[in-house]
Design a protein that fits this description.
Ubiquitin Ligase Nedd4, Chain: W; Nucleoside Triphosphate Pyrophosphohydrolase; 2 domains; 8-stranded mixed beta sheet; elongated
């Protein structure tokens, strides 16, 4: 069933000042045959489109435990999160999720399936988390992580989680585990202010 789009706060689009092709000052206008304001170069004719950024990550499970990483960077320094980060050019969402896991936790994993897709239009992002099986308890966190740790499912530090997309993904996992059926969840979250 299709539901009407939520009435989210939509921030001003990201803009750049100078053309990346010729270096001239850009203007903001709606190009012919378009319906949105864009960054335009009146010198070379380039249209600079701004699109959402993808955050990709994994939900690593080892038996009755989930892997979380304590952030060594801002935003939300010192808070717990799933291994995730921005997708890079030239990689699939799954490849990016595996790379981010390796960089942040060093856990050896086997990706199983796409688990959550979370639209966050208020910060121009889409978060994608893959369900993954951790292959061992061994961890080797990178420089963006203060500590990586497996938590018993009844000991998840809910009050110390970094982002709502992480807590929502974990809540869906616990619900699906209780029912024994793991589905892909797709929804939107409105984040008007840092949480």
């Amino acid at each position: 069933m299709n539901q009407p789009a939520p009435d989210f706060y939509h921030p001003a689009p990201r803009t750049q000042q100078f053309c990346s092709q010729c270096g001239h000052l850009l203007t903001r206008d709606t190009p012919p045959d378009d319906n949105r304001l864009r960054d335009l170069c009146t010198h070379c004719g380039a249209v600079h489109y701004q699109n959402p950024r993808n955050v990709v990550g994994v939900l690593p499970i080892l038996g009755d435990q989930v892997l979380l990483c304590r952030r060594a960077i801002q935003p939300r320094h010192g808070k717990w999160t799933l291994p995730a980060g921005f997708m890079e050019l030239g990689e699939t969402t799954e490849e990016g999720a595996i790379r981010e896991n390796q960089e942040e936790s060093g856990a050896q994993i086997q990706v199983q399936s796409l688990f959550t897709v979370i639209d966050v239009p208020s910060v121009n992002q889409v978060h994608l988390y893959y369900l993954a099986q951790a292959l061992s308890p061994d961890l080797d966190p990178g420089i963006e992580t203060l500590e990586a740790k497996f938590f018993d499912l009844d000991r998840i530090p809910w009050d110390e989680l970094a982002f709502r997309t992480v807590s929502t993904t974990l809540q869906h996992y616990l619900q699906d585990r209780e029912h024994g059926i793991f589905a892909t969840h797709h929804y939107a979250i409105d984040i008007r202010f840092p949480d």
